[in-house]
Amino acid sequence: RTVYVNGEYLPENEATISIFDRGFLMADGVYEVTSVLDGKLIDFDGHAVRLERSMSELDMRSPITKEDLLEVHRELVRVNEINEGLIYLQITRGSDGDRDFVFPDPETTAPTIVLFTQNKPGLADSPAAKKGAKIISIEDIRWGRRDIKTVQLLYPSMGKMMAKKAGCDDAWLVEDGFVTEGTSNNAYIVKGNKIITRQLSNDILHGITRAAVLRFAREAQMEVEERSFTIDEAKEADEAFTTSASGFVMPVVEIDGVALGEGVPGTIALRLREIYLDEMRKAAI
Ligand code: PLP
Predict the structure, then answer these.
(1) Pocket residue to mutate for ligand 1, from 244, 249, 272, 276, most atoms within 8 A of Cβ
(2) Adjacent-strand bridge partners of 197
(3) Which tens digit of pLDDT belongs to each residue from 191-225?
(4) What structural domains and CATH numbers belong to the chain?
């Protein structure tokens, strides 16, 4: 695989990063994951805009223009012959050659930028989406700026491990009884014909897929309510699903051992998945 590091395309085993990089020492960095379908980028613009915002919230300076970033994404897709898969992009604050809590001077310290591809044939036609996900709920003990897409992913990883140990696929995070989001996705329930998902704030990541799916839902005259819902309300819902750039729209069929509806993927979730994939393929660049 060819990867991109600080302006260079290299074989993955020749790419190197300083051991003092603050991404490595302090999880001081941000990332994005963009999916590739038919060899094209899904919602590149949405991810580029959120990346800018994540960096500006952390006083980081972008080492690359949006135009060049698009070029790097496309070049990696081309050289690695990705038809369906993901592009991972990470920008960390770099280092001035030592460890210090204080940020290094941005005038003299360049951020580190890394991109690599993950080949995932069958990403869109996923068996997991046909089966639906079983989830557990766990307490949300993450920090208070979940709107910033940082590489600080230890707790979400632990959440996925807890789900795996329980024989499930993923976990939803719960704060004061209310669902914030999934470990790596936004969370939704459906009651009657109404789609309910938590309102945007610093408590959740502002999903790029969320924005697109809610737009398509409204365009299709579906009712959308952006409000907090409790985990108890979720267990009584007719359907549930999650959204993310890598999972698109993923039906949820079970929460903490309680089957939702008939215990199979819901019709609204499946319809939204189809609309999302159709529309985003058309708009891919
Ligand atoms: N919420 C969290 C915590 C995430 O990590 C992610 C994606 O990684 C999402 C939501 C979904 O965001 P997006 O649709 O932009 O992939």
Answers:
(1) 244
(2) 188, 226
(3) 999 999 999 999 999 999 999 999 999 999 999 99
(4) 2-119 (3.30.470.10), 127-283 (3.20.10.10)
